[in-house]
Amino acid sequence: MVDKLIAVLSLLILLGGCSALSVRMASPLVESQYAAINEESDLLLAEHAIPTSLKMLEGLLREDPDNAIVLSRLAEGYCGYAFSFAEDTDPERASRLYLRGRDFAERLLILYGAPENLTRQNPEQFKQSVQALNADHRNGLFWMSQCWANWLMINLDDLQAFVAMAQVETAMQRMLELDASYHYAGPHLFFGVFYGGRPKMLGGNPDKARQHFDLCLKLVERKYLIAQLLYAKFYAVQVQDRELFKKLLNEVLEAPTDILPEQRLANAVAKRKAQTLLETADELF
Question: Are the CB atoms for 152 and 104 separated by under 8 Å?
Fold first, then answer.
């Protein structure tokens, strides 16, 4: 699919230059490429294909800086790649990629009319700006929040992370109000991790975490396996429920590869991470 996109863009350049119009003519291929990657179950193939795809999208964005489809796919792409292929082995690199994804999502929200300094606003200004967003802004709001939250979770020793925590919570709370089911119940999954990944003295709340994880699993019919993975990693470990931990991770490992065909890649990543996490059970309990 990447080769096909390159070939079409090359033809457009020969016919008249890679203008904004040419980029928009290629938008259906961008969406097809996005779908094809998400349906890929071979992790090695995906790990090598995604960076090429992301750089191609960045090239398209240079020609059409206000292309909402490209901005959205870049935000999601960097977030997904960092989580899937960088976070566990190179947290510093993952941090940079998460922030790159957040910045693309912020650009998308600015395109929609948000203030240009959105992520640098003080908490009160940020809350007002986020409250002004509506359901049409869901993709930018969700991926800005998700990328930012993932960066935060691997930088909890950074003072900037504690400053950003309130803003991330505000943004995802607005997302929860606008569309709790967005991207496989992503807002509920976020709050499951948000409340389940910290001890009570630091704002954690196991009861709220469990409620959000259970709602997420209900909405996705237990087919989006990242939900069970994070439920085990954050809630089960925090409350020291080893049986639940094993049950959730074994559910991931035993699930059919095609349980959710449009998210084969995410589920393959969940299976790999679940196996690794299960092997560390004695260290966690």
Answer: no
Res. 14 pLDDT band, cuts 50 70 90: very low
Residue type, 276: T
The contacts of residue 116 (CB under 8 Å, 6+ apart) are 110
DSSP summary character for residue 132: T
Q: How large is the angle between the packed helices 43-63 and 2-16, nearest 10 degrees?
A: 20
Cβ(98)–Cβ(151) below 8 Å: yes
Q: What DSSP line would sit under 229-253, residue for residue?
A: HHIIIIIIHHTT-HHHHHHHHHHHH
- Residues with Cβ within 8 Å of 53's Cβ and at least 6 positions away in sequence, in order, are 2, 33, 37, 77
Per residue in 109-126, pLDDT (tens digit) is 999 999 999 999 999 999
Q: What is the pLDDT of residue 156?
A: 84
Cα(64)–Cα(13) distance, integer angstroms: 14
Concatenated DSSP letters of 250-273? HHHHHS-TTSSGGGHHHHHHHHHH
Q: How far apart are the first and last CA of the chain?
A: 44
Percentages of the chain per state (helix, strand, coil), in multiples of 5: 80, 0, 20
Q: What angle do CA 103, 212, 235 make, to 5 degrees?
A: 90
Give the helix/strand (H/E) hosting 60: helix 43-63
Q: CB–CB of 285/249 below 8 Å?
A: no
How far is residue 123's CA from residue 186's CA, in Å, rounded to a whole number? 23
d(CA 238, CA 259): 28
> CB–CB of 11/2 below 8 Å?
no
38 burial (CB, 10 Å; 0-12 / 13-18 / 19+) is middle
Query: What is the C-alpha to C-alpha distance for residues 222 and 213, in angstroms, rounded to an integer?
Result: 11
